[in-house]
Fold this sequence. Notes:
Layout: E1 9-10, E2 14-22, H1 24-27, E3 39-45, H2 65-71, E4 87-93, E5 100-102, H3 106-113, E6 120-126, E7 132-137, H4 142-150, H5 154-157, E8 158-162, E9 167-171, E10 177-178, E11 184-190, E12 196-199, E13 204-205, E14 208-209, H6 214-220, E15 232-234, E16 243-247, E17 251-262, E18 272-283, E19 286-289, E20 293-296, E21 305-316
Antiparallel strand pairs: 1-20, 2-3, 3-4, 4-11, 5-12, 6-9, 6-11, 7-8, 7-10, 9-15, 13-14, 16-17, 17-21, 18-19, 18-20, 18-21
Bound molecules: zinc ion.
Amino acid sequence: MKQVRNSLIPLKPVLVSRVWGGKRLKTEWGYESEKDEGLGECWAVSCNQQVDSLVTDGFYSGKYLSQLWKEEPQLFGKKEKDAEFPLLVKMIDAKGDLSIQVHPDDAYAGKHEHSKGKRECWYILDCPENAELIVGNNATDREEFNRMIKEKKWGQLLKRIPVKTGDFLQIEPGTLHAITSGVELLEVQQNSDVTYRIYDYDRQENGKPRELHLRQGMDVAIVPDMFSEKSVIHTAGRDNLLQKLVSTPDYTIWTIGINGVASIGRLTDSFLICSVIKGSGRLNGIELEKGMHFIVPNGYPMDRLEGKMRINLAAPVYD
Length: 319
Ligand code: ZN
């Protein structure tokens, strides 16, 4: 890659083991790990205590994302000096079912956890036929919601939504949700770790059930559910045409399928996180391939995308 300051910033994905994880992140995406199974998460673009992404090529090769965020604010169009890196991008490979959880919004998380809340979204990379995800709840009011939880009427309470490969789902804070077995997805979320687990299928880990956070989960859940009905977007845009998937107070997400040549110019006054989820090609002459995640710095023009590939793009919205 060319050694110019204002160019792409590719980052090294880090695999994280999870009991429910599969092996596709290694076998189908080529991410490195000493383990062969239980590879549940790939932290693709991360700047926090758990994972600090390493730049693998270009002018900033060898630096960590946290360094760039601090030392090179112009790359990010950053407005506030002390702000934390806004987003976190992961890939998830669920061999088993994940626990049912809910995230707080910024107001609740700020008050109770001294943290940002978590808004997140999913792009389905692969899933079994007739797959369903858990998104939302069926309770008509809070009394019924609390009763269904106390009486463990999970089948009645949890809303299941059919999905297929290529679908996109926006998960608002306060929405009960869970990824189900066989689903593989790309997740963009606020850079926050606040998760309230409300049900774990009564499973045991090391001989005991995992901790639940029922009180907090019941506090933050939105009842009746307002968002889940419209949470799914079927992506079926035309080739070489950018499709905006969602615009929220924290991020905007687009997808584009390239087949030939496209130009998308400048989308944001912050920066972009791009994930190549299918195929290969070039951006302004720079080689791209499936599984690459990179930052497009503020002001870098996406003038010439070519090849046969699909790229998902995320831009943060600054406060
Ligand atoms: Zn979540």
